[in-house]
């Protein structure tokens, strides 16, 4: 019977791997995308709005004090992220991708609602930590799900397709912060119609933003009910007939789109397990030298890369304010920089699968350095150049992320894919938490030397980019290749 199950499972995997296109309704991409929209809204909504939060709720007296308050908040948010990624997302290897996607979205929405109601700094910290738990688990599981459902030749393309919604969430978070929490200022120094000094928005604009986040999470949760389970996961649980039915639906849809499908390969033999626990997944990764090595490489890449990502994603407006930019102007430079972020998934969808995943890290860091240098040269007086620099900066520090999401999901076998992704991405986020505190210390040290100069601004952005340089060197020199190969070939 066991041998017969293996043969049936082998045929299901062979049928799935021969499908050359996305063979589910594109509505499912949208459903996953709405969830990503919310999670990135939550990551970026603090960028601009935190200035108002600091003045109103934390009673700071100067923008220079804000980075020191932001550091612990980002750190605890990312500690929550790590907890969610390492402890919750591996449950997707136990109870299923779809079920955990429902749970993680509920946790994230509750955290955002708590943020909206926070009465003080301590509760704000706790709320951001809870939200981080949900976000950390959710991102790992979504990328695992996409990696298992997308065609072999287009895993990066469809990861970037979903990531497109992330850019919309980031843009929404930043622009709503600019609209609801900053005072009006003539464009391009701010938004002439900003509401940050009007009525309820003067004190509670930031609360409204988190309330919007909770509503987005509820929408994402309701939509995810419609998602089918991953056939690859069903096979690891011995649920072969269910997996076969889902693959049949995918085959029918693909046939209607492209006609005859390629021939089925017969030489694939996946392992079929009746039961697998979190500890089983962990043991599987740590007993195999190949996966231990991959885990070490990916944790290092994410750790140093996230140091750059979170310094900018969570703190760019606060950093600019501390360096002498008026908050509306700093917010506008950040908000327009999101144009570069939106270009990231469009690039990945067009040519993401044409290069090895690790090659994108080198392209990405070059643009991060260029964007930071342009902002430093521009200074407070040259807003157009600062905006151009911000666009390039956002394009650069984000370009490697969806490619590395794809890379990480490909690097572990189905029975431990969520666990492997969670460990890599989750432990890597420790770097993101550390970076904001490090950059805050660098800024405070430089400001203690006297007046802000172009040299000081350049030094800040060079330090921020340096972490991504380290990440890139690790990826390029010792990173493994995965592009355009079957998942069972890459990670048997």
Automatic annotation (TrEMBL):
Any Pfam family hit: Sugar_tr
Family matches, as PROSITE patterns: MFS, SUGAR_TRANSPORT_1, SUGAR_TRANSPORT_2
Primary localization class, coarse: membrane
UniProt entry tagged with the keyword Transmembrane: yes
SUPFAM superfamilies: MFS general substrate transporter
Record-annotated membrane-spanning stretches: 21-44, 64-88, 100-117, 123-146, 158-180, 208-227, 295-325, 331-352, 359-379, 385-405, 426-450, 456-478
Entry keyword Lipoprotein: no
Domain of life: Archaea
One example GO MF annotation: transmembrane transporter activity
Gene Ontology CC entries for this record: membrane
Annotated membrane topology: Multi-pass membrane protein
Keywords annotated in UniProt: Membrane, Transmembrane, Transmembrane helix, Transport
Domain Major facilitator superfamily (MFS) profile: 28-483
Location(s) in or outside the cell: Membrane
CDD domains membership: MFS_SV2_like (cd17316)
PANTHER family recorded: SYNAPTIC VESICLE GLYCOPROTEIN 2 (PTHR23511)
Name the record gives this protein: MFS transporter
Taxonomic lineage from the root: Archaea, Thermoproteota, Thermoprotei, Sulfolobales, Sulfolobaceae
